[in-house]
Amino acid sequence: MVPASEFERRRAALVEGMDDDGIILLLGHDQAPMNYPGNPYPFRQESSFRYFFGLDEPGAAGWLDLATGDQRLYAHVPDLDSVIWEGDLPSLGERVEPYGAVDARPVADLAADVTAVTRGRRVHTLPPTRPAGRERLTRLVGGADSSPDLIKAVVALRERKSPAEVAEITEAVNRTATLHRLAMAETRPGLTEDDVVRRLQAAAAADGWEWAYPIIFSVRGEVLHNLGHDNPMESGHLVVNDSGVTSPGGYASDVTRTFPVSGRFSPDQLAVYDIVRAARAAALARAGTGIPYRAAHDAAGRVITEGLSDLGIMRGDPDESVAAGAFTAFMPHGVGHMLGLDVHDMEGLGEDNVGYDGRHRRAEAFGLSNLRLAKPLRPGFVVTVEPGVYFIPKLLRRWAEQGLHEEFIDFTSALRFERFGGVRIEDVISVTTDGVDLLGDPIPTSPADVEAACTG
Ligand code: GLY
Ligand code: MN
Ligand code: MN
Q: Distance, CA 386 to ligand 2 centroid (Å)?
């Protein structure tokens, strides 16, 4: 649990990190309307608001006055009407107590108080991530222009996780580990993807766990973010299970395992799986304080290039091949991203503001342009390591037609794998001063452990 004192420290550090004497205004998310079949009350708190003010309730807002140091938190105070429709609540004081000393007021006073306090002053806001937030911000301060200074200060704080945050993420990974084991045990030929997904959802719901992002669970793992679950699962298929739940404090996990539906890897599956495992080891070996995360991406790419060359799928000089980015035909995504309250942490603040800096700019090249995090790692960063190898028939055919990277890719051999799907292995690590820690309980990764978990 993140203690009250830590919320106080975060707010103080944010004030400290700003250079002028304006006002920081942070809005929480609102309740969504009821028109979402099957999910009538989809509320998830805005992550930066939650990070600084903690309160996990719809409609809340807060401000920090950089001139006076005043801290205000605005939240709902029940009236008879809201008691009738939504039920009663503990007092505002009780509800905000876990988040440290702050002046808590009824949200009904927010608009008048914001008008009074912001008059003639600079107002710093973050990019609204939902249309309703944009409208609310416009109503309150006349516009929704976000503040680059505030974005920078918020990223600088949120990217360095405290021990309490690392403990939350570890707890999220531990919960996720039990669900990944369950998925391996439950999967068998003759079921559909949906059969297993429903079991995972039931298991998570039974413990009150929430998903950090939509479940990717598919025998068509070559579709990187495949959100459909209606394929039948047959012997010979591989399942990519990319799914994770949150911790009690709302922190995400993001874990992928790939396993055979039959419980036994075929020789081809094992060969590709071993390449991804070796790429994972290489990326982990290059992950550390001061090292740009681009180096871990390149290290994974190098191992994939060598491994696929051993299988006769790639060819040519590995240095030239990696430099040309030929492996992106098989891994068109980045090797990882930051993780925290959001699965792609702080994505709403602009990915380039989070994963890149003045010295590391996003590449335009296919594949590498999808790398969300390239800048050097620092102690406290929590990031995913998620190499993969996929056989995407349309991509391979397109490149074959274009002759793209034909000196490095044997397209005839690659297309022998056109029904293979894909393999991804994803874990969460925290960066320390002298290395990295793999977070959470072990989740089967070696082929022997995966097969044992599949066959019980
Ligand atoms: N689960 C989405 C991702 O790995 O980025
Ligand atoms: Mn990920
Ligand atoms: Mn993932």
A: 6
Structure confidence at residue 225 (pLDDT): 94
Backbone angles phi, psi at 383, to 5 degrees: -140, 160
Q: Are 4 and 12 in contact (CB under 8 A)?
A: no
The HSE-up count of residue 266 (CA atoms within 13 Å, CB side) is: 10
Q: What's the rounded Cα separation, in Å, for the pair 201 and 199?
A: 5
3-state SS, 126-165, equals CCCCCHHHHHHHHHHHCCCCCCHHHHHHHHHHHCCCCHHH
Q: Candidates 254, 257, 382: which one to mutate for ligand 1, based on the most atoms within 8 Å of Cβ?
A: 254
DSSP string, 169-237: HHHHHHHHHHHHHHHHHH--TT-BHHHHHHHHHHHHHHTT--BSS--EEES-TTSTT------B--TT-
**Which residues surround ligand 1 with Cβ inside 6 Å?**
213, 242, 254, 343, 386, 426
| Nearest Cα residue to atom 3 of ligand 1 | 254
Sign of CA dihedral 155, 150, 63, 32: negative
Per-residue burial over 99-112, b = 16 or more CB atoms within 10 Å of its CB, e = otherwise = bbebebbebeebee
Residue 37 has pLDDT above 70, yes or no: no
Q: For residue 297, which of 312, 311, 316, 284 has the smallest C-alpha distance?
A: 284
Please name the residue whose Cα sits nearest to atom 4 of ligand 1. 254
Q: Which residues contact 363 (CB under 8 A, 6 or more apart)?
A: 369, 371
Other CB atoms within 10 A of residue 434 CB: 8
This prediction has a pTM of: 0.97
Give the atom of ligand 1 at the shortest distance from the alpha carbon of 384.
Answer: 4
d(CA 435, CA 432): 5
Hey, which of 216, 257, 423, 429 would you mutate to test ligand 1's pocket, going by the most ligand atoms within 8 Å of its Cβ?
216
Determine the average pLDDT of the residues in 43-50.
Answer: 95
Q: Encoding tokens for residue 267?
A: 């020789």
Q: Which of 225, 263, 230 minimizes the C-alpha distance to 243?
A: 225
Q: Given pLDDT bands bounded at 50, 70 and 90, which one contains residue 171? A: very high
- Closest-lying ligand 1 atom to the alpha carbon of residue 372: 5
Q: Which among 263, 218, 256 is positioned nearest to 236, based on CA atoms?
A: 263
Q: How far apart are CA 394 and CA 389, in angstroms?
A: 15
CA–CA gap between residue 408 and residue 440 (Å, rounded): 38
What is the side-by-side strand order in the sheet with 255-260?
Answer: 216-218, 238-243, 255-260
